[in-house]
Design a protein that fits this description.
The protein is mostly helical. It has ten helices and no strands. It is elongated and about 65 Å long. It starts with a helix and ends in a 5-residue tail after the last helix.
C-alpha cells in the first residue's frame, strides 16, 4: 500500500501520546510485529540464540512424533506446523541463513523416521518441493554460508537416494542429485523451480 504525502504529514502531526497509543494498538493486533520490535529493541538473545532454540524445537518435535505416530498424514500436519514456526522465526529475526538451514534440518529430521504405514507420496512430494524451494534461497545467500549447509545437503541427498520412492519421485519431477550441494546449485534454479511447478508434478 502506498502512503500519500498528506497521510504521512497527518501522522507526523500526532502528539507523542497519540503516537504511543496508536503504536500499542497496532502491536496488540499484530503478534509478529510486536515480537519483532521486542527482538530488535530489548531482547537479550541474538539471532544465533533464536536459531539454536529452533533447532532444538525441530529435533524434539520430530523425534517425539516419529516415536509416537508415523502416519504420513499426521506427519505432514506436523511438518506444516513446524514450518510455520520457522517462518515466524524468520519474520521476527530476518534470519535468511536460518530460513534455509532450519528447513533443511526439518527435512532431514523427518526423513530419519521411516513411516510405519500409509501412503507417503504426498509427504514425499511436500518434502521434495521444500528442497527445491531451499535451493532457490541458497543461491541468494552469501557463499560464505555454503560451508555450513554442505553437510545438511549431503545428508538429504543420501536420504533421497536411499529411498526407492523418494529417488523415483525426484527423478520424475526433475530434481537432480548433483544440485544437492550449495556449490552446484544452478544460478537459474528459480526459473527451473517455476517450470517444475508449472508442470503440476509437485501436487
Amino acid at each position: 500500500m502506498e502512503y500519500s504525502k498528506e497521510f504521512k504529514q497527518a501522522l507526523s502531526a500526532f502528539t507523542s501520546a497519540e503516537k504511543d497509543k496508536l503504536i500499542f494498538r497496532l502491536l496488540r493486533k499484530d503478534k509478529i510485529l510486536s515480537q519483532k520490535l521486542y527482538f530488535e529493541l530489548i531482547d537479550p538473545e541474538n539471532t544465533d540464540d533464536k536459531r539454536e532454540q529452533m533447532e532444538t524445537y525441530i529435533r524434539q518435535t520430530v523425534t517425539a512424533a516419529g516415536k509416537n505416530n508415523r502416519n504420513p498424514k499426521l506427519f505432514l500436519q506436523l511438518i506444516r506446523k513446524v514450518s510455520a514456526k520457522i517462518t515466524e522465526h524468520v519474520k521476527i529475526t530476518t534470519d535468511k541463513f536460518g530460513e534455509v538451514s532450519l528447513n533443511l534440518m526439518l527435512i532431514a529430521e523427518v526423513l530419519k523416521h521411516p513411516l510405519r504405514h500409509g501412503d507417503s507420496y504426498k509427504l514425499d512430494i511436500y518434502l521434495l518441493n521444500k528442497v527445491l524451494r531451499m535451493l532457490t534461497l541458497t543461491v541468494k545467500l552469501d557463499p560464505d554460508y555454503y560451508i555450513d549447509l554442505i553437510e545438511l545437503y549431503k545428508l538429504i541427498k543420501s536420504q533421497i537416494t536411499g529411498s526407492h520412492q523418494l529417488k523415483s519421485i525426484s527423478i520424475n519431477i526433475g530434481l537432480k542429485q548433483e544440485w544437492l550441494d550449495p556449490d552446484n546449485v544452478p544460478e537459474n534454479i528459480a526459473d527451473i523451480y517455476r517450470d517444475i511447478k508449472s508442470r503440476g508434478v509437485l501436487r
